[in-house]
Amino acid sequence: MSSWIIAMMLGASLLLGGFGLWALLWGVRTGQFDDKNKFLDGALLDSEEALRDAVMMENKKKKIVEEKRRKEKGYKPPD
């Protein structure tokens, strides 16, 4: 490979890398990655079925964690 091709590839990669870094810093500085309404929009735009499924999965997870905790401690019947 000639040194001219290597120099062109190195220059192009540095130029593209510099542009990518500039774009990332600009996006962070101007708040392009901030999603302040994420949970509000999620609640408004999700269907009732999706929300119900999410609640059911959360309850199932809590139940599994509680059963695991009981097995580790040993189960005592309530007084």
Question: Structural class from helices and strands?
Answer: mainly alpha
End-to-end gap: 83 Å
Instruction: Count the beta strands.
Output: 0
Which parts are unreliable, with pLDDT below 50 for 5 consecutive residues or more?
Answer: none
Computed over alpha carbons, the radius of gyration is 27 Å
Mean pLDDT figure: 84
Strand coverage percent? under 5%
How many strands, which pairing sense, and closed or not: the largest β-sheet? none
Overall outline: elongated
The structural domain count equals 2
- How many alpha or pi helices? 3
Provide the succession of SSEs: HHH
Task: State the helicity in percent bands.
Answer: over 70%
Summarize the structure.
It contains 3 helices and no strands. By secondary structure, the protein is mainly alpha-helical.
Question: Which helices and strands appear, and what pairs or packs with what?
Answer:
Elements: H1 3-29, H2 38-45, H3 48-73
